[in-house]
Amino acid sequence: MADLLAGAYLAKGTIGNVGTPGAPVATFSLVVVPSQHSVTGTVVITQAVNGPDSHIVVQVKGRIYSTGIGNYTQVVSLQGQYVQSFPPPAIGSFLADFNAHLAIDNEWNGKGGFSYYQHQIENVPVAAAKNLKEQLA
């Protein structure tokens, strides 16, 4: 049972065009357990717009696998659900799906995309948090 969390580490970073006005950006904080191919954590989607899509918090789980080829040495998939409110003047909310896919190197930099209620973001940068290099060393 002690080997269950062997090699576990924390991964933090962003998915999206950080610094582009109005672009949605997903910030992730994930516990990665490579020996179990599992990823769990939180994704926060922010966008500089008014309304229900400006700040979304999603609890996610997913899978991580090594590719063994090219610059992108790992692939990650994430899934989760969150409460999405209807835009005014409608009243109410529902469970909406969140999905993400990443092709990354060992330092969590690469390309990816994510989707959430009526939004599909593809082929955007994945960037590790600045202090992640020290954490992985």
UniProtKB/TrEMBL annotation:
<dbReference type="InterPro" id="IPR014992">
    <property type="entry name" value="DUF1842"/>
</dbReference>
<protein>
    <submittedName>
        <fullName>DUF1842 domain-containing protein</fullName>
    </submittedName>
</protein>
<dbReference type="Pfam" id="PF08896">
    <property type="entry name" value="DUF1842"/>
</dbReference>
<feature type="domain" description="DUF1842">
    <location>
        <begin position="7"/>
        <end position="118"/>
    </location>
</feature>
